[in-house]
């Protein structure tokens, strides 16, 4: 079946595709930093991602998946605990979820408790030292810390601080952190194949996170291909409150980026191409992992999940980076392959969340959770059995520096995404008062265009969506 064409098999008969559940025991868990759905299988014709496209063609592609907070630490902590940011108290980059609940069982930890070897290579939790979680793993993780010097390859940039936002190096892939991660993962897969030990192998890639550093050959894929920009998509949405935005603080810190003001058209194009080149670099790394699985025969009993921790703006809506409640920052790619569904690949258009991954994987592997999970197993969607929730919740604090510590938070913005709408409410922390409202009519994958909150004809929509956010906020904020 070709990707993008409608599945002709009736939903009722999907369970007939299932293989023996007892044959599945391994998990390859691939996390990608700052990856929005700039992938061919998601309809991006500019992206060169042959390995991800081939993988999607034989598995489950979730076209509308959303993170719970559009920045690495909270997003990953939420997904790996199966709980929402407010439930675990992690809405910044410095707080550890065990500060609130020291006895929580993480996703890899649960597999470890059930006899699996749980191995972490690369960035799985947020890359700071204080957010690591050694109890989750069977052995000490490697390449798990984000060290600025190690994010560059060229000697002029390796001074321990932010240097250029774009680095193109004519160097071997293993000169880059992500190439080293792949090399280590391939070695571990060889070891596991020999030992026969059931495994949960988590492999985390740092690109396309800034700085956009990649081998020359991936830059060459894009350097002569112009990017067509629709001017209207790069304007701020009309009538949107200032609190919704930031000043690109993450990007501004790099030496080739001005401290204020707009970027030149040439710099915008360079950054966008470099982002895509990094995506192609990671696509090639994933291709090596999947090839190794096949070569070792492990693909026959290994579930593979590939996910991005948050989205990213590339100039759209006058924004660069993540850290908002807008569609482009909250929407992420999610691809799952399981031998159970090998004969029925399909695209799933229902709205899902990253917190659904935890219950999905333990469901497919026959494991029982040790705490109540806030997500729902995607197995029900894959088998056509669910009366699905079909909405996603995300949140983000303000001011911008609040992502470094919750102590700086003055406001929290909560958003709900439904089939046709995105609604955002901003609450003042001190008074719990709603200070700003945003309502957007969503049009497929296109970014928000106009805040229509307050218009009488949409009052009933706002009332319904506000009830959803209030219920979400009150039930998860502890």
Descriptive notes:
The chain is of the alpha/beta class and 478 residues long. The protein is built from 12 helices and 15 strands. The protein is globular and about 65 Å long. The strands form 4 sheets. A 7-stranded mixed beta sheet has the order 3-5-1-7-10-2-11, sandwiched between helices. The protein has a 4-stranded antiparallel beta sheet with strand order 12-13-14-15, covered by helices on one side. Helix 1 packs across helix 8. The N terminus is likely disordered.
Outline of the structure:
The chain is α/β, with parallel strands linked by helices and 478 residues long. The chain has twelve helices and 15 strands. The protein has a seven-stranded mixed sheet with strand order 3-5-1-7-10-2-11, sandwiched between helices.
Work out the helicity level. Answer: 25-40%
Q: Within the largest sheet, what's the order of strands?
A: 3-5-1-7-10-2-11
Query: Main β-sheet: number of strands, strand sense, barrel status?
Result: 7 strands, mixed
Low-pLDDT sequence parts: 1-21
> Whole-number radius of gyration?
21 Å
Strand content: 15-25%
- Count of alpha/pi helices: 12
The structural class is alpha/beta
Global morphology: globular
Q: Report the count of strand segments.
A: 15
Secondary structure elements and their pairing?
Elements: E1 26-32, H1 50-56, E2 60-66, H2 72-81, H3 85-88, H4 107-113, E3 117-122, E4 166-169, H5 177-195, E5 199-205, E6 212-215, H6 216-219, H7 249-252, H8 265-296, E7 302-308, E8 313-314, E9 320-321, H9 327-330, E10 331-337, E11 346-353, H10 357-364, H11 379-382, E12 392-398, E13 411-417, E14 421-428, E15 434-441, H12 459-476
Parallel strand pairs: 1-5, 1-7, 2-11, 3-5, 4-6
Antiparallel strand pairs: 2-10, 7-10, 8-9, 12-13, 13-14, 14-15
Helix pairs in contact: 1-8, 5-8
């Amino acid at each position: 079946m070709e990707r993008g064409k409608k599945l002709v098999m009736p939903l009722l008969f999907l369970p007939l595709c299932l293989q023996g559940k007892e044959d599945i025991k391994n998990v390859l868990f691939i996390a990608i930093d700052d990856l929005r759905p700039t992938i061919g299988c998601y309809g991006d014709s500019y992206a060169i991602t042959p390995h991800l496209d081939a993988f999607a063609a034989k598995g489950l592609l979730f076209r509308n998946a959303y993170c719970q907070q559009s920045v690495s630490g909270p997003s990953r902590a939420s997904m790996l605990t199966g709980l929402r940011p407010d439930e675990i108290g992690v809405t910044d980059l410095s707080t550890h979820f065990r500060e609130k609940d020291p006895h929580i069982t993480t996703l890899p930890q649960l597999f470890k408790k059930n006899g699996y070897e749980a191995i972490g290579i690369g960035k799985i939790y947020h890359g700071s030292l204080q957010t690591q979680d050694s109890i989750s793993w069977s052995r000490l993780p490697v390449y798990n810390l984000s060290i600025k010097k190690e994010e560059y390859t060229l000697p002029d940039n390796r001074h321990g601080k932010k240097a250029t936002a774009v680095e193109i190096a004519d160097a071997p892939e293993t000169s880059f952190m992500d190439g080293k991660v792949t090399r280590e993962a391939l070695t571990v897969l060889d070891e596991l194949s020999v030992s026969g030990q059931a495994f949960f192998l988590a492999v985390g890639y740092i690109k396309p996170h800034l700085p956009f550093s990649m081998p020359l050959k991936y830059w060459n894929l894009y350097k002569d291909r112009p990017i067509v920009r629709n001017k209207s998509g790069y304007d701020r949405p009309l009538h949107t409150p200032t609190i919704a935005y930031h000043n690109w603080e993450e990007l501004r810190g790099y030496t080739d980026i001005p401290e204020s003001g707009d970027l030149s058209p040439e710099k915008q194009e360079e950054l966008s191409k470099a982002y895509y080149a990094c995506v192609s670099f990671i696509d090639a790394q994933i291709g090596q992992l999947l090839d190794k699985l096949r070569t070792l025969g492990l693909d026959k009993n290994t579930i593979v999940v590939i996910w991005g921790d948050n989205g990213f703006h590339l100039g759209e809506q006058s924004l660069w980076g993540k850290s908002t409640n807008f569609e482009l920052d909250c929407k992420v790619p999610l691809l799952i392959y399981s031998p159970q569904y090998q004969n029925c690949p399909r695209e799933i258009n229902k709205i899902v969340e990253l917190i659904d991954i935890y219950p999905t994987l333990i469901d497919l592997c026959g494991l029982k959770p040790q705490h109540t999970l806030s997500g729902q197993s995607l197995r029900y969607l894959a088998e056509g059995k669910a009366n699905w929730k079909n909405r996603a919740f995300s949140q983000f604090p303000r001011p911008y520096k609040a992502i470094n510590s919750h102590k700086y938070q003055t406001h929290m913005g909560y958003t709900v995404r439904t089939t046709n709408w995105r609604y955002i409410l901003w609450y003042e922390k001190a008074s719990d008062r709603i200070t700003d409202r945003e309502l957007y009519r969503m049009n497929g994958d296109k970014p928000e265009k106009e805040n229509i909150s307050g218009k009488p004809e949409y009052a009933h929509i706002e009332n319904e969506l506000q009830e959803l956010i209030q219920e979400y906020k009150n039930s998860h904020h502890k």
